Amino acid sequence: MMKNTFNPNQSIPLSVKIFSWILIVAGIFFFYVFTFNPGLCFPGASITDYSSQLGFSSTGVRILGSVVALLISVIFNKSQWLFITLVSRLTIEIGDIIVNVSSGGTMLNTIMIGTIAILEFWAIVKLYRIIKS
């Protein structure tokens, strides 16, 4: 019989929890920005027409979904849940970088997203080692 090599009872390391809480707080802020006031981060942006409102609002809702997944993972101290959530976020961050570069986005935004992606990768590796032990 094959032994399960994953340990679902391992808790989330403190450093990864702190990083997750930073993502949660930042995510709440960006949910507000994208949904209600995109001009805070995107000069000249408005949500006066339907397509802009739909684009910004749907992005805000997706951010909120990610925040909820992070929050549930951290509150219940489930390393596997957080691992899956961060893998999903990393995929989104990589996609955002590709879109940002291909559409001529700002270098600062690309660097910021890249930094978050690197930190998410660090947390994923750390969680993987803990889950695998």
From TrEMBL:
Keyword Membrane recorded: yes
Protein origin, superkingdom: Bacteria
Keywords tagged on the record: Membrane, Transmembrane, Transmembrane helix
Membrane-spanning residues: 12-34, 54-74, 107-128
Name the UniProt record assigns to this protein: DUF4345 domain-containing protein
